[in-house]
Amino acid sequence: SVTRMAEIMEWTDKAVRAAEVIFDTPQCGSEKREYVIQFIDRMFNSKKQVITKDQIRILLEAVLKQMKQS
């Protein structure tokens, strides 16, 4: 649903910001991405799959693009 997707997008944004703080060394982009993917996967897919890892990756890239534009 639209509400669920908005919630996932909001949490993806928060997870990206957290990853920026947790992994603050240069050249750790892959670790940041994996952190966000695992975080969202655990949060929303704990009982049944709501979103695939590929979908999470797409949302992650959208959030990163938004962050770079602002």
How far from one another are the termini?
27 Å
How much of the residues is beta strand, in percent?
under 5%
H/E element sequence: HHH
Give the overall shape, derived from the CA principal axes.
globular
Share of helix among residues?
Answer: over 70%
Count every beta strand, where a strand is a DSSP E run of 2 or more residues.
0
* CA-atom Rg in angstroms: 12 Å
Total count of helical runs of at least 4 residues: 3
Average of the residue pLDDT scores = 93
Largest sheet: none
Low-confidence stretches: none
* Backbone structural class: mainly alpha
Describe this structure in words.
The chain has 70 residues and is mostly helical. The protein has three helices and no strands. The protein has helices at 2-22, 29-44, 53-69. Helix 1 packs antiparallel against helix 2, helix 1 packs across helix 3 (53-69) and helix 2 packs across helix 3. The chain is globular and about 35 Å long. The termini are far apart. The mean pLDDT is 93.
